[in-house]
Amino acid sequence: MIKQKKSLGRKLKAYLPLYLMMVPGAVYLIINNYIPMAGISIAFEQFNYSKGMWGSPFIGLKNFEFLFKTKDAWIITRNTILYNVAFIVLGTVFAIAVAVLLNEIHSSRAKKLYQTTILVPFLISIVVVSYLVYAFLSSDSGFINKTLLPALGKEPISWYTSAQYWPFILILVNIWKGLGYNCIIYYATLVGIDRGYYEAAVIDGANRWQQILHITLPALKPTIITLTLMAIGKIFYSDFGLFYQVPMNSGPLLDVTNTIDTYVYRGLMSLNNISMASAAGVYQSLIGFLLVLVANFVVKKLSAENALF
Amino acid sequence: MVDRGKSFQVVANLIMVLLVLFCLVPFVLLIVSSITQENSLVRNGYSFIPEKIDFSAYKYLLVDSGSIVRGYILSAIVTVVGTVLNLTLTTLFAYPLSRRDLPGRGVLAFFLFFTMLFNGGLVPSYIMWTQMFHIKNTIAALLFPNLMMGAFYVIMMRTYFTTNIPDAVIEAARIDGAGELRILLRVVMPMSVPIIVTLALLVGLGYWNDWLNGLYYINEDRLYSIQVLLNKMLMDVQFLMSNTSAAQSLQGQDFTLPSTGIKMAVAVMGALPVLVIYPFFQKYFVKGIIIGAVKG
């Protein structure tokens, strides 16, 4: 027994340098991630800057009661989920279509060129994207109002105050930005398909469409399922920049651009309503957490090797 | 796959070319507008064909206004320092985790992993960084929150180590009397150049493109990185005028800011480094995305 203990001590000593290596990262995770996790207690307090995170008076679920009495709670939940559903469905369909097409192209130089360029939007910051959108949509100098609509004989549109267009604009921008990224992932799976299947299919007289339907898509199924479930796990989160910066934080658009993330930010900064913001943040964190667990559980059932944990 | 008519190839390529145009056309509009003369921009709006080419927006940004140059330098410093810090923390955390014999490995991996499942959100983070660490309006605000280490990249690196560095190599180094740090620096890292380059590019891109930390924690002009400047200027171009001495002296001489064109020029400058560097490292970006998505 004593001998074993001693050897455990010696063993730990031998590993000491490895543990020491992990100290900086561990400290960072504690600060950047774990303290804020404990800080969700703010949502149950009447927060006051002078009393701080741990000293403000506890008021139970009051903040949540207030939050869910507002119509904002419903709007931000609806917007966050519906946009994500649209992004998942359309993003996946387009990405697969493009990946399949890319895979059918002969010239490897052309292939590489296409692959390289469709990834460009993904690499650009969302702030630059908002300028690109502005170049098209600006009321007094935008391409659409100054060139396109006059050419069609139509009146200019005040884009940044007309909410009805924004669901389409935001979906289009999201697809534009994410297409290359999703496409590359699907394409990587396609490249891995055994050529033998296609050769056999051709011998059996299958045409191109039948090959895609019966070989390519089934081969993509595990990737589609995994990526979709992972996206569902994140359905309560939105790209803050897309919904705040691209519509230029325009008030008249709030009904269709306000998501949980933009609501939390506005509550924290501009409206100075920390209680509501923190309640909305906790609402997001908890449901987001549950969704990740469920999504991962389902992935595990379907294809264990793709599960997150 | 044998049934590949020539006409099919033509159609497929045509569709892909249209798609490429769809991805690039907004950049063309941006760049052309940035070199179009201000008067014609005001008259015709942003367009794909410049009526009159004129580089004065760039001249103003690079010569007369100090903000942009300062923002560029700040962004470059933050990107380099942040990337080095991130890779240091990431490597130091990932290597021990990749060692199958490390006692407590499972617990440590979970400690890392849990940060991907659950987070406290913006409000507690903001209050912690500003009230406990007082990073508001310091350069630390651009470096520390969220970007300095992420579980995702640690896991990517750990997976690379476990699959590409044979245990025997580490064992051999130890028998030769090398300590752990020495093994990491002299044996493991030289064998891991591809993943280090890949992660350096992704992390660097994250720092260069980051504007959220600036939005949350910075409200002093001198600490505006290029992305934060872009963000401020989209809302208000005149902002450039208010804080440069050159502009103030020019104002006296009845100077009008070529604001329509400047908006586009400044966005070009924000995107330019990424667009210039990307083609050379394309394969690393692609590889990084693929391993990240599949093995994250």
Automatic annotation (TrEMBL), chain A:
It comes from the Bacteria. The keyword Cell membrane applies. It holds the Pfam family BPD_transp_1. Its main location: membrane. InterPro entries: ABC_transporter_permease, MetI-like, MetI-like_sf. It is found in: Cell membrane. It is a multi-pass membrane protein. Belongs to the binding-protein-dependent transport system permease family. This is ABC transporter permease subunit. It comes from Neglectibacter timonensis.
From TrEMBL, chain B:
InterPro entries: MetI-like, MetI-like_sf. The chain crosses the membrane at residues 12-35, 72-95, 107-127, 139-156, 183-208, 262-281. It is a multi-pass membrane protein. CDD domains: TM_PBP2. PROSITE patterns: ABC_TM1 (PS50928). The keyword Transmembrane applies. It is found in: Cell membrane. Belongs to the binding-protein-dependent transport system permease family. This is Carbohydrate ABC transporter permease.
